[in-house]
Amino acid sequence: MTTVAPGVLRTDYQRSVAAYWNAERDPVNIRLGEVDGIYHHHYGLGAYDPSVLDGSQETRDARVIAELHRLETAQADFLLDRFDGVRAADRLLDGGSGRGGTSIMANRRFGCRVDGVSISEKQVEFANDQATRWDVADKVRFHFRNMLDTGFESGAFRGVWTNETTMYVDLFDLFSEFSRLLEHGGRYVCITGCYNDVTGGRSKAVSQIDERYTCSVHARSEYFKALLANNLVPIQVIDLTPDTIPYWELRERSSVATGVESSFLNAYREGSFHYLLIVADRVHGRR
Fold this sequence. Notes:
Elements: H1 12-23, H2 57-81, E1 91-95, H3 101-110, E2 113-118, H4 121-133, E3 140-144, E4 157-163, H5 171-181, E5 182-195, H6 204-213, H7 220-229, E6 232-239, H8 241-252, H9 261-270, E7 273-282
Parallel strand pairs: 1-2, 1-4, 2-3, 4-5
Antiparallel strand pairs: 5-7, 6-7
């Protein structure tokens, strides 16, 4: 059940991002999902099992693909762990929902309604097809809408998350919208890559990531400025950088490598790029 808000694509940049993701067909975003039918659009966490690189060459590729998918699913589980206490009567929003995997996982875990929004019509169509396939379309719905102006009612959501999507938008505009959507005491969870502004501006490796994905990675400090400006108080911050490096090391040795792996690894290892989890709760602002 795709719903469309008016004026979804409002700038040339948004149109270029939508065109990129409408056309995107990277095997890393398809073959990993084929392992169990849950399709993600994010990276992984945790140490990989080195035995997947050993043994029969005939089955090596399948073992590596399955292990990469295990790591990306572990990342989604880690994000959803931050919503402990969500009930079946609650409602969650997935901002920049990709092919819908984490939204389907959230419904499985909590039994609640989940809405996903994306400016990619192709991704919305794919994700809704997956919700139908898993027989959860009555609770999990994806919408062709802009997460900067979703059109949903104020205070409708117990929780909102973004998973590697904030680098496409202005953070102050985004968190203003999320603050509006969240009920008092509601929770926002973000996993994102950000450049380390202690070391200066974007490094060469970070600029290569921007170019590859048509995005603009934000400075680490920008997240906290924008959260606090919009009545979202950080309660937990975890540097996941050491935990994501193994995923990239394995992906670099896989058949689904895209060539961007060295940029991520260089950026992480030199300290110019961080992979963060940020958890923030919605509080009343000053009038």
